[in-house]
Amino acid sequence: MSFFTEARLERYSRHIILKEVGIQGQERLYRAKILIVGAGGLGAPAALYLAAAGVGTLGIADADRVELSNLQRQIIHHTSDLGKAKVESAADKIRAINPDVTVREHHCFISAANIRDVIAGYDFVIDGTDNFAAKFLINDACVLAGIPYSHGGILRFNGQTMTVLPGKSACFRCVFRKPPPPGAVPTCSQAGVLGAIAGMLGTIQATEALKHIVGAGHVLADTLLTFEALEMNFRRIKVRRDPECPLCGEHPSIHELFDEEPPAACDLKSSQPLTR
Q1: How confident is the model over 204-229, as pLDDT tens digits?
Q2: Can you tell me the distance from the alpha carbon of 186 to that of 159, in angstroms, rounded to the nearest whole number?
Q3: CATH of the structural domain 27-263, one choice from 1.10.510.10, 3.40.50.300, 3.40.50.1980, 3.40.50.720
């Protein structure tokens, strides 16, 4: 039976009429498997838009529970979700938006011990984490596994993102060699963040994932996109692979994954098998 029932043709009609997407692109989205690490400020809007777009399998990895302070920007969670695991709260909203989507809940802090298993089988990864240790670990794991991913970070009124295509473009370590010293950069809980900034960047990351899956346009490979929202200034910074990068350079020294911080346990739940 064809995936495109009359109801689905209507649901995805605004995609299908785009020549860059069409029936074939929409079918690629249905067969795609995208992992979002972090069901917070960035992961929340990314998950909602990817679900609405018809991505067939969405993985959500997060170990936290919904807190009141999250609701200012993490729009996938509602007041009634307080105390609920974020992966469960996010999965409920994804299924409510689009029952076509298979949701995999990875209730865990990612670590060097579990990240290979968490990312295995996905076509694209979105980094929605809020700490440098996780960002470097996601970069290293995706590059070593050959999985494209979108980096994202926000603080105050600022955001930045780049897309990494392993073996083809600069990786996160090409641009930022190692995490800053502890305490050198404040967190959102210390310095604050305008809630809508998370939405701005999360939707950009979702767009990068969708473009990659359907093969439309150009993703932010070898490009660091930054913005400052007080004056609404956007800047594209060209970057390139560093031949001395310890991960993807000519003579790499990083061959195994390691934690910048102590790891935590992982509990994997799945509504259906990952393979379709």
Answers
A1: 999 999 999 999 999 999 999 999 99
A2: 14
A3: 3.40.50.720
